Structure formats: C-alpha cells, structure tokens
Amino acid sequence: MKLTKFTQMVALPALLGASSAFATSNDALLDLLVKKGVLTEAEATSVAEELKEENKGVTFSAKGKETVKVRFSGRLQGQYDSLGGEVDGENTPTTNHFYFRRLFFGVKANLDNGVYAESVFDVAGEEFAFEKAYFGYEFDPKLDVQFGFQKVPFGFEETSSSSKLPTIERSAANRFFADQIDFSARHTGIHAQGDLPAGFSYAVALVNGAQGEGSKLWGDAESDNALAYFGRVQWESNGLTFGVDAGSGSNSDDKVGGNDVVAFTGYVNYKLNGLDLLGEYFHGDLDEFGDVDGYALRASYRFGKFEPVVRFSHLEADDFDIDVDELIRRAPSDTDALASAMGAGNEIDSFYVGANYYLSKALTFMAGYEIAEAENDAGTEIDVDGFRARIQVLW
C-alpha cells in the first residue's frame, strides 16, 4: 500500500473524530452556560444551530493566502402528473407522464474577506439553466447586498423554496405573476435585504425588467433596456408573519403587450407547532389590459411524519386572457387560454387537497388532487382536474 493511501485512510477517521469531539465539546460548553444562567435554553439552541451551520462545508485554499469554504447541495424532485380537461364540455387529451420536476445542483462559497457567492444549476429542463447565480457582501445585519440572478421579493409562496412548500405546485394566483406574465420570479440585477428593529425586515431589488439568467443579451443589445423595481416589508414575531411586497416594471418581451405592470401582494403566515396557515392577496395594474386580482388560502397540519394540506386559489382579470395551462402546470395544452373580447372578464378557481409523508428531512413523499374551473363573460368554460405525486430528495 502506498504511503499516501495509508495516510488518507488514517487521516479521514481522525478528522471525523476531531469533528465529533469538537461538536461534543461545544454541546458540553453550552450545557454548562445554561446551568450557570449565562444562556437560556432557547439561546443555547440558537447558538448550537449557528455553529452547526458554520461547520458545514469544506475549506480550500484560494488565490494567495486566502481560503474559501465551499458547501455543495442538491435537490431532486421526481414527479408524476395525470391531468384531464374540458373546453365547453368537450374532452381534451389527458397528460399522463413521469418526469423530473427539478434537478438542482448547487455550490455556495464563503471567502475569508466576507464575500460570498452561490450558484444553483437546473438540469431538469431541455436546456442547461441557472436557478440562481450571485455574489454578495453583508455590510451589517441591516444591509446585505448581492449582485446577480435570483428571485425578486414578490410573493410569499413564490419566494419560499419549493423544497419547503406543502403543496406540489404553487397557486394559480401566484403563477399568473411569476409564469404567465413573467413579472416576478428570477431577474438579474442588484438585490439587498436586512433586519430592522422590532421584528421588521426589508428587501429591495433593482433588476432587468425581463426575466432570464442574464448571462447574455438576447437578440439586439438594445432590445431589453427596461428596468424593474421591487420592494418588501415584513414583520415577524412568535410564528406570525405579515408582509407587503410591491413591484413596477415594463414588460418588454410582449407577455403583456409591452405595457407597464404595477402590482402588489399582501400576506399573512402563521405557524404553531405543526400548523401552517397562509393567506395571500394579489393586485396588478396591467395598463391598457386593466386590472387583475387574486388570492390564495392554504392550510396544513403536520403530526408526526404526516401532513394533510388544502388550498383554494382565485384569480380574476379584466381584459387579459388567462392562460389555464400556464396557471395549472402541465394541464392539457388545449386549455391554453380563455379567448375573449376586450371587456369580457376572465376568472379561474382552483382547489387542491393533498397529503405529505416526511420520511426524514432529506426524503419526502407528496400526493395531491387539483380541480380548476375557468370561465369568461363571453361564455367559454374550461375545466381541469387530476392527480400529482412527487418524491423529493435533498442533500
């Protein structure tokens, strides 16, 4: 056996043992501080979590004498969808397939000088894509600034990680702003957030108006010059969160015919033990297409490893055609839009009921049934219903 191989075999258990001993010594010290009255149980738990998070990752040598701590992560969501539809009483083809909803591979780096960076790649689609790519610096807990591609602060459910949502897909009201008109979700630009006194926090973003990874300028260099602005104010205490998000931008990729879009959302989220309640309201001014209003109500309760969940979502637009198969993801393509004349209102209701089983923090099984009904004043009716199931693995 070569010496280097022998050294590796001896060093690995030693490192693991040292890590374990370090963690044990930390726990013992925290227990002692609690007994002495220096820390409360809650404070000791918080410190232990911070130490645990800080010790994650592998440290490498970077340029010069600097070192960088790197942490790798991944998310795999294997999914099955079976959704049928009707347009004015006529059946449409049924979607029936297995696929990968998400295949994320991420890496986060922290440099000695305080600069950090994160990149998350999604290889589930037809093309290699960025889920997130940015670098930043925390000047103070009140000011943490990043430059790059990530979600803007608009929508509680939208900015919550899919790995933590109790429903398989986000609500129809949320998806209208994030997916049909490409208003919220991921944009490239300057992002900042921070904590304020008395439980308040904020987030702001100055970004490209057009969605996209921003690694290149699509088409002509001057074709997408519009910028967008987003802001958030939140208050949180004892599991209760109130927030208001707002945004304004010109939609230059013709999703809303080049019109300016101004929108806001207000929400309240309450968590107590296994209970999780969310209410979210949306309003958007689509310029010459009139207004759009919507809301989503969600309730889940986790007991042990099980979690039932229900959600109702409603969206109503003045002069803008609702794209049903965009709001109800993977619905049959024949349900794509409520073709209507100007002034013929569009609306959609969606009800979801499901159950989740958490085998561990890393492995979750989810299943749910969704029923959606859409109509307009011109007499068009579209129905979609079906079953979804997902297996999620995190690492």
Q: What's the arrangement of secondary structure elements?
A:
Layout: H1 3-35, H2 41-54, E1 58-61, E2 67-87, E3 90-91, E4 95-111, E5 115-122, E6 129-140, E7 143-151, H3 172-180, E8 186-195, E9 200-208, E10 227-237, E11 240-250, E12 260-272, E13 275-285, E14 291-301, E15 306-317, H4 324-327, E16 346-358, E17 363-376, E18 381-394
Antiparallel strand pairs: 1-2, 2-3, 2-4, 2-18, 4-5, 5-6, 6-7, 7-8, 8-9, 9-10, 10-11, 11-12, 12-13, 13-14, 14-15, 15-16, 16-17, 17-18
Helix pairs in contact: 1-2
Q: What does this protein look like?
A:
The chain is α+β, with helices and mostly antiparallel strands and 395 residues long. The chain has two domains: 1-55, no CATH class; 65-394, Porin (Beta Barrel). 15% of the residues lie in helices and 51% in strands. The protein has four helices and 18 strands. The protein has a 16-stranded antiparallel β-barrel. Helix 1 (3-35) packs antiparallel against helix 2 (41-54). It is globular, with a radius of gyration of 24 Å. It starts with a helix and ends with a strand. Residues 1-24 and 340-344 have low confidence and may be disordered.
In short:
A 16-stranded antiparallel beta barrel has the order 2-4-5-6-7-8-9-10-11-12-13-14-15-16-17-18. The protein has helices spanning 3-35, 41-54, 172-180, 324-327, and strands spanning 58-61, 67-87, 90-91, 95-111, 115-122, 129-140, 143-151, 186-195, 200-208, 227-237, 240-250, 260-272, 275-285, 291-301, 306-317, 346-358, 363-376, 381-394. With 395 residues, it is α+β, with helices and mostly antiparallel strands.
